[in-house]
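Researcher: Please translate sequence to structure tokens.
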Amino acid sequence: RIQSVSRGWRILMWSAITELDLSPINHVLDAKILYNVLERTVSLRKLDLTGSVIEDEGLTTLRLVPNITSLTLAFCEEFSIKGLSHISSLTRLEELDCNNLAGFRNTRSILANQILQLLVPQRNTLKRLNLCGAFLRSLKDIKKFTALTSLSLYECRLITEELMPFLELTTLTNLDTLELSNMGHPRFISNQELLVLSSTLTNLRHLGVGRSHQLTSDGLANLRYLPKLELINIMSTWGMQSHAIIPHLRHCTQLKTLVWTCDPTNPVDDVQEVRASFSQIVDVITRGEFMYVM
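Model: Translation complete:
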């Protein structure tokens, strides 16, 4: 009887778990072990597998937790698009973090567009999506996800011959966070694209366009259409000296954080000039790598 009661308590404890973080494991995540864990967590809503080595068979266990709303696969490796296809069964998914899947072994061949096609069933419910470091053939698949409030394409590679591909994002009017920094060759956001995005995505509070080598300081004038903007990342974007950016940022009365590369020949004066011009700014980040974390 004591054993029976003890077992009952264990089952009750497992069934009460709503958040499960397996990221500290950081090694091969055996499918059988994952199955034994997930079949007991019937109330699970958030699952974090960051850094796990997990094969396709392991991802089949996602069918055991169809009600999860948040899934993190950041820095995972070994699975293929076949294994990843099981995310389609997560019909209540609101947040998906696929940070740097493209940098690892079998996952290297997975394009962000393939992930987006798998997520079509969740296009009306998915709110936060991180595709950092992925390869994209087009942004057309993203425009269907109109419920998104946060989208990170940090360090993505956009491989397309379209003249103004970023205009596909104008349908995402619920966005409050958009990270487009470090999107390397061959495509960078332009002044004209920033104008159109700023005039349509007026709910943005956080915007990243760092290292956008087609963007100039004059393009920052388009930020006047973003009355709620609190953070702007223009790190390592050419021609963004203090005297060039200050006139264009005066319209951003809610701006609290500026991520920016100051004049290396006179950094102290450059930062002081910016702070003196914007009394509401709390943080000026001028060194090191910056990435907005979802």
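Researcher: Any highlights?
Model: The radius of gyration is 22 Å.
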